[in-house]
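note to self: dont lose this again. the chain is below, predicted strucutre after it. 612 aa total, dont forget to put it in the shared folder this time
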Amino acid sequence: MHKRESIIRKYIFILTVLGWTAYAYHLHLYILPEDIFIFVCLVIFLGVIEYFRLPIGKVSTSIGFPVLFTLYLIYGLSTTIVFYGLVLTVVNVLLRRPLRVVLYNPAQLIVSFILSIQVTGLLTSVNKLTFGSALEEQFVFLTVLLISYTVINNLFVDFVLLFRVEKLSLTNWVQKFLISLSVALISYLYCLLLIVLGHQDRGDIDVLSYAFFFSPLLGLSLLSSIIVRLQQEKERLNALVSITSEINDSFATNDWIDKIKPNLFSFLQTDVAFLCAEQNGKWEILIKDGLEKDFTFSEKIKEEIIPITQAIVYSNKKHNGGPLAKAFPSYIQSIVYAPLKIESKVVGMLVVGRTRTFSFSNEDVQFLSAVVNQLAVTLKTRKLIEEQEKNMILEERNRIARDIHDGIAQSIAGAVMNLETAQRKFETSAQAAYDLISNSVSKLRISLKEVRQSIYALRPYPTETIGLKQALEKRVADFNKESSIIVKFEERGTPFELSTKNQKLLFDIAKESLQNIKKHAKATEVSVLLSYQSDFVLLKVKDNGIGFSLFDAMLKARNDPHFGILSMNEQAERCGATLQIDSKKNQGAEIKCIVPKDIGDEGEKNNENYVS
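---
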């Protein structure tokens, strides 16, 4: 990695020196044009076109070749090189690019143009081409020059891209090729038109003629640049929407961070990323992409990043890179720290970096703030869910404790008392002792059954071991074996992740509904439907039995300590679900449970603070 970086630095240094050496040479040879108005007009057009270049991933191109070609035809190579280099330098300064880019970009384009002129002259002289007219000669010259310039310039750019640490994707390469080809074709057609019009007798050509001729090219450059940039922003916003959707779909699962990673990196458009957050009372690394292999997250680093309460940009890591500067590779130059905050408390930190200094704009930091707000809300929601599940577990433990105290413990205590009484009466009244022992055995058998039921209740739920669909299918299959009732199970829609408590709720309601149908409904057919909708999951259990009066069932449920209608309804309410029961005598029954999709809330945006 360091070898690649060294090669790129040497290559950029050599090309920069060559370019500015050539510029200095031509600076002594150029002649200021006599018709200054036309010259200034062409230079301004060239500057505007170069300013609004077409971005292609991490590189860019422009359609300024026709103006450059015109300058060369009218004013010669030296004057063209001097003012082309000046325009490129001013444009890079206005775009606030780093000094090395300000020096390298003009140098590379100057060398490309000079080499293309030399190659064109060499090819036309070696082949000893003869032309029927001056027009034909200029056509051939233009063709060879444009091909040479396009190939040489792209070779220089591609060499840097191939050796850079952060690789371009295949999509970026294809996009770069297609845009470069399109730019070359537009430039060629425009230059052909220029040559044809130049050989027609149209009288004196003034500055307005040049302005009129190149105005469409300028408009095309502006429009193309805006369209490409808008397309990039659209892709970025789509990535943000995808991140939000992925978080909403999977934040209740353990692998939620893995599911949002692809869209997260597409949205951030950074070269390295690090995300740590507080989970289960301790700080953990959630993303560690591109950092040094020997990096370890220590308590000291945690203490250094916790005081960062606003987004901070370090534009040049060599001067100051923040607490994690040493963890980032040497080629990373700009770093942003964006804290994840819940109620003003820092519970995590997203740190990203890019290879260029001053490469994070205000919009980039605002986008980062939007992401960390979403992540912070996700962490808070996950924490609330975990607390709710812990409370449910605690409630279940308390219920089991009450059941043991009120049921099993009382039965065993009664049996022990009976046995003690029987022991005392055994010698005086054997029959009374026998009756007490028989009664105790009956109580102990009941207690043993309740113990087994409690042990079974403590086992992991089928939904936790094999999943909701498989658990329901197994329960239906077992039910069909146990009874003569025909039960059919169907799943509809595209399944998505549900929290453990919601899966448990749906399974319990399905199991209890089938049990009630078996005991009371006298049904012959039952259908169980699990339907995934866009915003909720529907469980529907429908039978063709004798039905029942809902009012009578509710009265009976109040006196039944086991899992009945009231218990189902209470559990549904705790999970934020809705239980609907529809039944009439002799018309069967239909039980619906609607569980809303787990959705996180939006957080507040963070302010930004810059450190250069």
